[in-house]
Design goal:
Blueprint lengths: L1 E5 L14 H10 L7 E2 L4 E8 L2 E8 L6 H11 L7 E7 L7 E5 L7 H10 L5 E6 L7 H5 L5 H24 L1 H8 L6
Parallel strand pairs: 1-4, 1-5, 5-7
Antiparallel strand pairs: 2-3, 3-4, 6-7
Helix pairs in contact: 1-5, 2-3, 5-6
Length: 188
């Protein structure tokens, strides 16, 4: 079994924020399967699908970004998922919009959701998918909690399906092949 965590903040107030791109991507991924998200045994909602004979759960923590690690810990404690079989999808303001970075391990890079996960599970070795949300701003907090511009929203219509394709590729082929294929900018 594998688990894909999309990070974001719950509630309509945050639904269009840059910080919620993880939620947006996994919502888009799960939508064609017509599987609803349901409450989990902890601080998260999840949807379960089977892809290429692989059982996968797609998880949205409801703890707010800064405490995402609690939901990851709850999932790891309840489902038969190994740490090596999780992927965390989240925004990265260090990357230009449309740039993808898959990696295993590393620091939190200043991302509070990743920091929380590292603190809760006690290690930093897990698969990550950093989705560039734009790196041209004055204040990081204001930037991540702002909505995408109309132009950026139009670009997301192209980028989110590619992000979903990349997640599907990870589910079938693993991290190394996914990094080789998708670690680049998709806006030229």
């Amino acid at each position: 079994m594998r688990a894909v965590f999309g990070l974001g903040n719950p509630g309509s107030r945050y639904s269009k924020n840059r910080h919620n791109i993880g939620f947006d991507i996994i919502d888009h991924f799960v939508n064609p399967y017509s599987v609803p998200f349901k409450a989990g045994k902890g601080d998260y909602y999840y949807a379960e699908v089977e892809i290429a004979r692989t059982r996968a759960i797609f998880v949205k923590p409801v703890t707010y970004m800064n405490r995402s690690g609690r939901a990851v810990q709850h999932v790891l404690g309840y489902f038969p998922v190994n740490l090596a079989d999780i992927l965390v999808v989240y925004d990265d303001f260090h990357l230009p919009l449309g740039t993808f970075r898959f990696r295993t391990g590393g620091s939190d890079g200043g991302h509070n959701g990743i920091r929380s996960i590292i603190e809760e599970i006690g290690q930093s070795f897990f698969c990550r998918f950093r989705f560039g949300i734009g790196n041209n701003f004055n204040d990081a907090v204001d930037h991540v909690l702002s909505n995408f511009s109309k132009t950026e929203q139009n670009l997301l219509l192209e980028l989110i399906p590619i992000a979903c394709e990349a997640i599907g590729y990870w589910l079938e082929n693993g991290m190394e092949e996914t990094m080789n294929r998708y670690n680049k900018s998709f806006l030229l």
